[in-house]
Design a protein that fits this description.
Layout: E1 2-6, E2 15-19, E3 29-39, H1 41-47, E4 59-60, E5 64-69, E6 72-77, E7 90-94, E8 98-100, H2 107-112, H3 114-127, E9 135-139, H4 144-155, E10 159-164, H5 171-175, E11 180-183, E12 193-198, H6 202-209, E13 212-220, H7 233-239, E14 242-245, H8 248-254, H9 256-271, E15 279-284, H10 288-296, E16 303-307
Parallel strand pairs: 9-10, 9-12, 10-11, 12-13, 13-14, 15-16
Antiparallel strand pairs: 1-2, 1-4, 3-5, 3-7, 3-16, 5-6, 6-8
Length: 308
């Protein structure tokens, strides 16, 4: 069986396609024939040696796939974090982390769905209340999670406000329903917002806090632009604002029932036509290194997917 194996910490060239043993299904597992595998920024961090729960190397990365199981089209998580094993022709998956792939969806869209849409849906539906017309600032809004968040906020009758890394990326979130789209350098000129959904961290998160209205809430999700700066609680108290944090991998381990329920809920949005995954690039398994370069260079939009 072919798989893209991460040989060690380093550059994208550490990803090498080679033959590996066939997966074996354990208790509660099934072997899925992989038709598409999602590539996440967490995979890049693992390769760079910057991920807090990295697997032992060499390892096959890839935590979400879409494929076929006994003639049925499915999608889901390979693992809640770490190596996963999705960058391969076949992979063993816990049956309770599988969802049916909608009839009109491609396998690439299926591989783009689980991580991005649950990372957006759970905090935006469980941690905050988005009222009609609520302004929600979404950073990294042209990426996989960001495009999911724009669509979810719109489906919840909110007003998505997109922030992106370059002017060229503004059109994508606008096409998905964002009411405004700015670059990070322009964030300070935005009108106040009710919610911040941040995937960037660093100085972008710090500046976004200044946009929150009284009783507003920021959700810290990612740190693609650097670790979060410390926030003095006195600032939160004085401005009547709050901060939540969200990490899907940890939640899958601690409250799997909540995650599975949320998966079914957001799947209904897709089946009803309110949302749809955005696939930015489809690359062959042999191009796994190029997929990592595309994400690491911040050039990608939507989800980058490998096709075994």
């Amino acid at each position: 069986m072919r798989a893209a194996v991460l040989q060690g910490v380093g550059g994208p060239e550490q990803l090498v396609v080679q033959d590996v043993p066939e997966p074996e299904a354990g208790d509660g597992q099934a072997v899925v024939d992989v038709r598409a595998a999602g590539v996440n920024f967490a995979d890049v961090l693992i390769r760079l040696g910057m991920y807090p729960q990295a697997p032992e190397l060499p390892a096959v990365l890839g935590s979400e796939v879409a494929g076929e199981l006994d003639g049925t089209r499915v999608m889901g998580f390979v693992a809640s974090g770490g190596g996963g094993g999705g960058y391969a022709e076949r992979v063993a998956v816990e049956r309770h982390w599988l969802l049916p792939l909608p009839e009109n969806a491609s396998f690439a869209e299926g591989a783009a769905f689980p991580m991005a849409f649950l990372t957006a849906w759970i905090p935006l539906s469980e941690l905050v209340r988005i009222g009609f017309g609520a302004r929600v600032l979404i950073t990294a809004a042209a990426g996989a999670v960001g495009t999911a968040a724009v669509q979810i906020v719109k489906a919840l009758n909110g007003a998505p406000v997109a922030a992106v890394g370059s002017a060229e990326k503004r059109d994508l979130p606008l096409s998905l329903g964002a009411v405004e789209a700015v670059t990070y350098e322009e964030i300070g000129g935005l009108d106040p917002v009710d919610v911040v959904f941040d995937l960037v961290g660093g100085g972008v998160f710090a500046e976004s806090l200044g946009l929150l209205k009284s009783m507003g809430t920021a959700i810290a999700v990612g740190y693609a632009g650097g670790m979060w700066e410390p926030v003095d609680p006195a600032r939160l108290v004085g401005r009547n604002i709050g901060i939540h944090g969200f990490y899907l991998g940890r939640l899958m381990g601690r409250d799997p029932e909540l995650v599975r329920r949320a998966g079914n809920d957001v799947l209904k949005l897709w089946e009803g036509g309110a949302v749809r995954p955005v696939v930015g690039a489809e690359l062959a398994l042999e191009e796994a290194a190029e997929a990592h370069r595309l994400i690491e260079s911040r050039q990608s939009t939507g989800k980058v997917v490998l096709i075994p």
